[in-house]
Amino acid sequence: MQSLTNRSKVVVKKEMSFAEKLYLPAVAKGMMITMSHLFKKKVTINYPEVERPRAEVYRGQHVLKRDENGAERCTACGLCAVACPAEAITMEAAERKKGEEGLYREEKYAAVYEINMLRCIFCGLCEEACPKEAIFLTDRIVPTEFERDDFVYGKDKLVEPTKKDERINIGPRQTQTTIDFKKNPEYAHNLLWDPNKKIGPKKGH
Amino acid sequence: MPKVTIDGHEIEVPKGTTILQAARMIGPEVAPPAMCYYTKLKTSGGYCRTCIVKVTKGSAQNPNPMPKPVASCRTEVMDGMEVVNFTSPEVLEARKGVVEFLLINHPLDCPVCDQAGECHLQDLGYEHGAAKTRYDFERRTFEKIDIGDKIQLHMTRCILCYRCVKTADQITDGRVHGVINRGDVAEISTYIENAIDNDFSGNVIDVCPVGALTDKTFRFKSRVWFTKPVDAHRHCDKCSGKVRLWFKGSEVLRVTARKDQWGEVEDWICNTCRFDKKQLSDWTVEGPSRIDRHSVISQGHYELAKLKLDTGKKLKELHGGK
Predict the structure, then answer these.
(1) Who among B112, B221, B226 is closest to A107 (CB)?
(2) Between chains, do A93 and B226 touch, taking CB under 8 Å as contact?
(3) Given a cut of 50, is residue B155 above it in pLDDT?
């Protein structure tokens, strides 16, 4: 049939000449290409010893933040789960008891909070939906696993450590607009990072 | 029969109809929102001022406009009356002020509150309110109070609409709670926390437009939009037995009365149906409840769309073609 674009290449089966039948020039030509690549700059890196630089706003593994007193910020409001297009997030709420004020910021907290990392598409809508500044995506990469169950991350993997120096700084993720917005004294209680401190992934390559 | 024009829609209504009722007869596109008025409760309305409208022409005999916006739930229509609601920037501005007042002492703890998702104050604030508050002072706070073992009162969230008081007065016999104190310090109280112990006391949960009165058996169980409402009935010798079940999976998390287009209860239900019958086997399921598509509860998309066409049609008839 007549092609519509004229871009198709017509294949011709023509008899090879004697020189072509030897294949040697073609082999030499191929080797030249291979050899030339030995002296070119390598395009691969030795991951995980070396990591490629990632953008500060890279959307990787989630973190559930604690507030300045070490109490979990998440109040299990379910807005992340309803915003999630992949339905990766599930949670169960529980009521804070007397004496647990240091553990949980609000009177309701997430007793179970699970993200299925196989379902997650790392779109960051949960982060946008969160009214409590509790969930953030970070520049950490979700490691590979052998079992599917291991990809369902519970609170043990999601909640950041209590110790101040082990906390995960999500400051560099914040755009200037967000920072300016949070500087408004009305939202001061939500400012939970140091906007001047910079962290990022290991720079390599 | 008086003829009234609301936002350009003319309607003839029986004598004694209020502007709000006439507007509701025309439809939701002109009906003003209402926080305290409740069709089924006598003498309700007139407290919250959410439903204010402007009367641009008093009546055919006296065409003068009314000097100030009026509460449409308490103002009867006159023949030839002309009313503006959503078409008047003045009314919208005034309503915005009313919402601001209602929210002055409201804690805005929606992420915690069980009412979120079906809260009238949330809808009102979203549709008619300002984006932020100008209020600088400390909000008044109260401790949570248990009214009996099934109902919890968060006085902090209350907007003093008096609906629950009137429900207890008119539906149950022997009301034991009411509003004490006046003005800024007014609060709903059972006075020394007397338990409301009555077969129909649970209805105060349904009439509460905010999360002030909530079902303790449903407390923090799930957000409403993760539960699936299903209409069901059972034979009950105390009430009509027509309820709405809220499922999560195959578990009935709570039972409420059915609510109509205006968020008002269709039939009062008794406490046995509400609190004690939480097995699927207790109920005859009629089908999924019709949820407004603008409601967050419809996010599950489980309703009419997934049913076969003829089932959908039957359901539509059942729900009056809404």
Answers:
(1) B112
(2) no
(3) yes
Nearest CA in chain A to B115: A77
Contacts of B111 in chain A (CB under 8 A): 75, 77, 79, 106, 108, 131-132
3-state helix, strand, coil in chain A (%, to 5): 30, 15, 60
Interchain pair A78, B296: CB under 8 A? no
Given an 8 Å threshold on Cβ–Cβ distance, is B220 in contact with A82?
Answer: no
State whether B111 and A107 contact (CB < 8 Å). Answer: no
Q: Cα(A150)–Cα(A145) distance, rounded to whole angstroms?
A: 6
Mark out chain B residues that contact chain A at CB-CB < 8 A.
Answer: 109-112, 116, 132, 219-223, 225-226, 296, 299
CA dihedral angle for residue B13, residue B16, residue B20, residue B23, rounded to 10 degrees:
10
Sort out which chain A residues have CB atoms less than 8 A from B107's CB and list them.
none
* pLDDT one-digit tens code per residue, A73-109: 999 999 999 999 999 999 999 999 989 989 999 889 9
The 10s digit of each residue's pLDDT in B84-137 is 999 999 999 999 999 999 998 898 889 999 999 999 999 999 999 887 778 878
CB B209 within 8 A of CB B50: no
Tokens of B173: 């016999």
Inspect the interface and report whether the beta carbons of B112 and A77 lie closer than 8 Å: yes
Is A107 an 8 Å CB contact of chain B? Answer: yes
B120-128 vs B89-102: helix crossing angle, rounded to 10 = 140
The structure tokens listed for B45 are 């309305």
Topology of domain A62-190, per CATH?
Alpha-Beta Plaits (3.30.70)
- Show the domains of chain B with their CATH numbers: 3-101 (3.10.20.740), 104-131+139-218 (3.30.70.20), 224-318 (no CATH)
A158-179 average pLDDT score? 85
CA atoms of B101 and B130, how far apart (whole Å): 11
pLDDT at B289 over 50: yes
Helix (H, G, I), strand (E, B), or coil: what is residue B197? Answer: coil
